[in-house]
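Researcher: Let's do a round of design. I'm pasting the structure tokens now; please hold your answer until I've finished.
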């Protein structure tokens, strides 16, 4: 299926400019010259067709008091599925990737599982990382909290 001009206008609008209101899609519909049901139905279709993976808000976790980190794990390849599955059971895990880093000094070929973790406090983070560190097949785990953030805003212009 090809995206229509309406689809492109709708997707462009909701990426970064979804109104904060009790009926945001009614406001989007008004701006696009259609009924709210048209917007809602089309968004459901676009999600079903795979054009939209997820809709949700982004929030500044630090401002809300959360503690986040990037974690690199060296896992025996025979255990990678089991370890990744266990990591995915923690509520604070936002991303989890099997990845092999080539050509990075000190990391090349060592760490093959990377995930991000956002939790309420340092004690919870330590507890979770200790539990993961103790899993069968985990050979090494490095907690890599951010020193400085350089936020990139991703927007796809359709």
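Researcher: That's everything. Go ahead.
Model: Designed sequence:
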């Amino acid at each position: 299926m090809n995206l229509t001009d309406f689809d492109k206008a709708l997707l462009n609008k909701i990426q970064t400019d979804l109104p904060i209101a009790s009926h945001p899609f009614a406001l989007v519909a008004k701006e696009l010259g259609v009924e709210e049901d048209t917007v809602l139905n089309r968004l459901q279709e676009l999600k079903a067709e795979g054009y939209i993976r997820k809709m949700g808000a982004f929030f500044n976790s630090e401002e809300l008091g959360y503690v986040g980190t990037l974690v690199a794990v060296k896992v025996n390849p025979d255990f990678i599925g089991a370890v990744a599955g266990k990591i995915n059971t923690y509520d604070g895990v936002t991303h989890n990737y099997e990845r092999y880093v080539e050509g990075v000094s000190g990391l090349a070929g060592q760490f093959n599982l990377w995930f991000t973790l956002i939790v309420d406090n340092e004690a919870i983070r330590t507890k979770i990382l200790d539990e993961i560190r103790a899993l069968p097949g985990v050979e090494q785990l490095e907690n890599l909290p951010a020193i400085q953030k350089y936020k990139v805003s991703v927007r796809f212009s359709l």
